[in-house]
Design goal:
The complex is a heterodimer of chains A (516) and B (562).
Chain A lengths: L2 E10 L3 H12 L4 E4 L11 E2 L8 E2 L13 H4 L9 E2 L3 E6 L5 E5 L2 H11 L1 H22 L11 H15 L3 H8 L3 H12 L14 H8 L5 E2 L4 H13 L3 E3 L4 E7 L2 E7 L4 E9 L3 H7 L6 H8 L7 E9 L19 E4 L4 H12 L9 E4 L14 E9 L8 H19 L8 E7 L1 H7 L36 E3 L13 H13 L8
Parallel strand pairs in A: 1-2, 1-12, 2-9, 6-14, 12-18
Antiparallel strand pairs in A: 3-4, 5-8, 6-7, 10-11, 11-12, 13-16, 13-17, 14-15, 15-16
Chain B lengths: L2 E10 L3 H12 L4 E4 L11 E3 L7 E3 L12 H5 L9 E3 L2 E6 L5 E5 L3 H9 L3 H13 L1 H12 L6 H8 L3 H9 L4 H8 L3 H12 L13 H8 L4 E3 L4 H13 L3 E3 L4 E7 L2 E7 L4 E10 L3 H10 L5 H8 L9 E8 L19 E4 L4 H12 L9 E4 L1 H4 L9 E8 L13 H18 L10 E7 L1 H7 L37 E3 L13 H13 L11 H10 L17
Parallel strand pairs in B: 1-2, 1-12, 2-9, 6-14, 12-18
Antiparallel strand pairs in B: 3-4, 5-8, 6-7, 10-11, 11-12, 13-16, 13-17, 14-15, 15-16
Helix pairs in contact in B: 1-11, 1-18, 3-4, 4-10, 5-7, 5-10, 8-9, 9-14
Classes of the chains: A alpha/beta (516), B alpha/beta (562).
Chain lengths: 516, 562
Amino acid sequence: MADRERFDVVVIGAGFNGLTLANYLLQAGLRVLVVERRLESGGGLSSEEPTYTGFWANTGQYVFDTLGLLPFHKELALDRVNVSFIQPDVQSALVMTDGRALVIYRELARTVEAIARVSPRDAGTWRSLHRLSSAGWPQIFGAAFRRAKAGTRAAAAATTGELTRLGRMSPREAVDDLFESEPVRALILNHLLVPRGIGLDDSATGHFVALAVALAGEGRLVHSGSHELAQGLWTAILRAGGDVWDLGEATRVLVERGRAIGVELADNQRVLARAVVSTIEPRETFRLAGDAVGASVRARLARFRPDDFSLFAVHLALREPPRFQAAAVNADVSHAFRYALGLETVADHAALWHAIRAGELPDQAAMFVSVPTVHDPAQARAGQHTTLLWHFVPRVLRGRAWKDVRDTFTAACIDRLRRYAPNVGAPTIIAAAAMSPDDHVAKFPNLASGLFGGRNSGGQLGAFRPVPELAGYRTPINGLYVAGASAAPGAGLHPASAIACADVVAHDLRATRRAR
Amino acid sequence: MKKTAGYDGIMIGGGHNAMVCAGYLARAGLRILLIERHLEVGGGLDSHENPRVPGFWHNVHSNNHRGLSDLMWYRDLNIAAQGQEYIRLPVSAAMLTRDHRAIVWYANEPERTAASIARFSPRDAETFLRVNKEYAQMAREIFFMELYAPPIPFDKKKSLLERSALGRQYLEWQPHTIQDVATKLFEHDAVRGMVVFMSVIRGYEMDARGMGMVIPAALASGVNTQMSRGSTHRLAHSLNKMIVRAGVDVVEGQAVTRILVDDGRAAGVRVADGGEFCARRFVASSVNPQQTFLDMVGRERLDGDFATKIEGFRYSQTTPLYTLHLALNERLYWKAAEYDPEVNRAFYLIAGLEGLRDLQELYADCRARRLPRALQLLGAQPAVHDPSQAPRGKCTAFFWQIAPGDLAPDEGGKERWEHIREEFLERCYAHLGHYATNLTSANVLDRFGQTPADIERHLPNMVGGDIVCGEMNEHQVLDRRPVPECSQYRTPIAGLYMCGASTHPGGNITGANGYNAAGVICRDLGIEPWWKPADPASHWEALATGAATAGAAAHIPDRAVV
């Protein structure tokens, strides 16, 4: 079949990273095409009606907490394409079985006050870590966060020292070192899991504790649902003269004399470009490029470790929001954006990881819950609600198939929620829909490395992600670049890799116009 | 409250008609805002991925986009250049009988259709071929042309048509009902049933007078079945691309709650979160008349008689659908293939219709707002024709059953659908099993039912699940749709227009309503359309005087949509 028109860059995959990347490249004056396997762009930026008509579930990601560090929405003027975010005042609640709750707020002072009631010492630590992290994070994260506001040089130096110290620890060691209160420790571990995908004993990730503190008040949801962000990014691409081809599955990266020259699609159509950026799973990227990549990179990629956990998601359509018993003690609990259930101590985390590594269903609740409709009524029918449960589970069950336990585990998840919010039951549930780890992968084959793009531990972070040869987004194949959740600086429901990769590509292509 | 100015016009609703209209107007130089309550535009151009078995995409409203890629707006607005592709289906439909025979209807091969009919009735086969030839020109130059232009008041139209042979053909059939015409033309009840069903499924009331011309037009034009590659919703993406590239601003996830009227003139809209958008020159609503006038304008701003008429706009009980959706390990095959192997190639399958009598019984049930006593499923397996809609080697299928949405109180009311979703699914499934060779539990990976009440919940425009947004009977078509005051797409409120399925020529994916409204709006704003809107009055005048040239109807496709 004839070659199609030429582009400067073809981006493989129209997920959060692919769509963002395309926008930055267009801002740099390049001609950009995004090819997407699915009918719908957005990848994990998806809002669907899996339960019941009129109840919009965010079936991928739902929390966005890095907009302060990575103001891509401002740089891309997404307000002009109908994208807006809601940042709830009550950000998260660690709900405990004894009826108490540790509540975190958008406003730092309120958070510190809440923590001080548990431990004055921890409140002070929280405040100082918050300051530290805000000043030092851009330096630690380098290119991806280059646009974040940097602190003073002196503050940065002090910060770097402490972050380096923490960076030698695991999160568990770091929270033990920093905090005395068990709920505060657990809360931080919770915030590392969602949305960073970092587990309590992932080596050399202790410095993320500071990030968790800095971003604890920063959670936002997309007005009308996560898919509206995808829709806005998509519209911005078209407006800037770019294009997105849905049902455009890339089946080959065309390589000629060691240089990527375009892609071939499932319908045999070839699209030529000066550069190809892949935002899909890196091993899949190099499979598409054939044998053109060197053996050492392939060998290293073969050892790239996938996430060792996964999520079992339950979406509920409800007649009323879950009414948490803990709200009787602290009324703010009813308005929290995110809830953590069953993870109130470090020991709870340890038990969860034990079950996950044994391939067993955790016999404790290990759930993150959100009720987006409390903050954005447009996501359900008038007066009614959606609720999202993310239960942490093994990617693969030992001796059992997910499809065989899906229904019983869905019921178990709802039961576990009911222990904290007794009104969730037959009279209030209109419909429920579940997605097991297998379902996530069936929907997005890109998630073969895991929902967080591959383990976020020391050997696979920052300059080592996914493997050292690829961490600068360039690859051994000229003109082929990698971005996405498996690329530096790692997953975390932000498009950091896209922004950093766009700079590299624009530089290499000598784009005339500088990105804003 | 934020007020956003700067728009010439605002479109309410983002179905395909609103997008077609917006595309024409934006390309006429107007600054347009389109507001849609869903996150995705498209209205009935909707496809959902199965949440239980990812990779299966189900088209939950429209499927067959008859002749769409031949239409003028498809060309004018460069829809193909947005990546849109259509798959033409040579075998349009197969009606499977209980004893596993079949009538097969080909898209554009009347001789083959006639041969299939001949196995039931040689006389009917001859009639089919005769009508197909005799009425081809009438279908094109009267019937289709009239769909793609604002309706001409009946008296004026009559006087124009009486003067030409083609016009007289139209007038000869027009006064009758669809079922009477079919009965008059054909002798075999199965043939009558099939011919009528293909019109009924497009929303025409078979027992309404004044609709008789639909049958000769349908027989003459072929069915011209085609489907959007990649699923129905892909056309929504293509239209979305087209309007964005034409400079239209799109706001999704916001429901319009109010049309702002200033000094008797539509001046903007308010949305659910309280924000307001101003329109300097017009507001065009693609939602139904009650939503537009009673909910959004407000009864207090309407003339009493007009408000009463709007309240009286009726929704059909014979178009709502219950849908059985299937995700299949392998496609279904039909027992009737032994009789005629072509049934396995057909797009639409009709299972349960032996003849017109079955439709009459169905109508009696629907009009009494009862559940149908017998089933007449009509459906297809989209992934047979477009493998991209299912995982490799696997298949999707849907089967519609016409059933009233608004069940009678003694039948349990509309709420009953909520309780019988599974039971009715079971009934449809068992019924289908009689016709298929391989509808086994091992072959079915997932199945779910969608009730008429679900349709309305999803698209409130479709009251009671009426897929054509207002009954298409003699009182509510052409120059009376939705009411005479609004039949030219204008309304009694200055600057407020209608452009959705509740206007002429009614429901279905035709784009005609939006196309026609765009022409009217342009001219009212003093802008000469950049395209060539059809002008049936002059064409029919020319037909009467013998001055018609072949070129005058050149933009009307030969095989248009009915």
